[in-house]
Each structure stands twice: as C-alpha cells, then as structure tokens.
Amino acid sequence: MWRRVLPLICPVCGARCSNSCAACWERFPPSTDVSVPLGLDELWCRFAYAGPVRHLVLAAKATPAYGWLAVMGRSLPGPGADAGAASFVVTWATGSDAHRRSRGYDPAERLARSYARLHGLRVAELLERRGGPQAGRTARERALLRFDAVAPRGADVVVVVDDVVTTGITMSRAAGALRDAGVAVVIGVCFARRELRGASGLNIGGENGVARGGAV
To answer: Would the pTM of this model clear 0.85, i.e. be above it?
Structure first.
C-alpha cells in the first residue's frame, strides 16, 4: 500500500512526482492517427506510442507500484458531460493469463477502473481472452487472438480500455466479440497508439473482426 502513497519517480526524467510529471507530459507527442480499427465506432487516443511515451508505458506495466497506471487512466479521453453516462459501461481488453500471473494484476483493468471512477461510469469485466501474449508476435500470429464476450444490461455503449494500440487487432477482436454478444456501439480508448498515418482502418476480417469502423 505504501508504494501507492509515496511520490512516484518519473520514468522519463527521474524526478519525484506527487501525481504526474507535467513538464514531461507537455512534451509528449499527441496521437494524430484518425484511423479506426474494424469493429469500433470510434477510437480515442491520447498520445503517440513513441519515445518517452513508450518509456512511460513500459515502466508503468513493469513496476509493482500501480500509481502510474492510475495517472494514465485519469488522462484518457472521456465521453463528455452530455454523453449520457448511464448508458455507458467501461470494460478492458484482458491481458494474457501468463502476463497476469507474472505481474499479479492486469494493467488494462487498472486503467479501465481508474478511467471509470474519473468519469463516473460503470465498469464490468465483459471480455475473456482466448490467446497468449501479443508482444513479439508476427501480424499473422496476432490475428489468431480471440475474445469471448457478454453484453452488459442497460447499456447502449461499451468503452474498451487498453494501454496501447499497435496493430489494432486486439481492439478489433474485442469489439467483434462484443458485437457478437449484441452490443450496438463499441468505443475504444487507449493511452497511446502506434501511428499508422493514412490508414482508414485495419481489414483483419475473420471471427471477432466484423467489417465496421469509422466515426459515429
């Protein structure tokens, strides 16, 4: 518990920070990629996954102190005050069993719960992963990822939170599973994404990869 109370050490500049290192975050490159992975109605991202942002994400996922994940969760783009919060449910793209066992927690879940608290939204575990870690895999191997999903009651929109979007396959598979379960609108939210400039969506097809994307 004490690790969550003491000031954090900024993984970018090494300064002791009570909440977040504003001087570093002001220099983080914003995400400018407007492409939307198939299955999502929208994808809201804060930063481009490069340089110091990548350093921060990797440090936050590797440390047993959960403070940086909470800070990241509070920085994610929200639905806005007039969005009808009662119709939203927040969930997360569950990590692999191997990573959850080794860390003792799921970074995406901690981001999702922090995000839901900040915006006053309900949060529920709706996705069950079928497949191992994505890191280090080829595009073909990543495409084998699947999710099972259940639809929440009394919700029109499901927000799927993840720390990083790289190829978009994880978000797309999660969205496809939710749509198979009957969810009408799926919005992805991430702290950072690997920029795919000029892309209009990722056509990965197959199970859990429905042909839908673009802004609502």
So the answer is: no
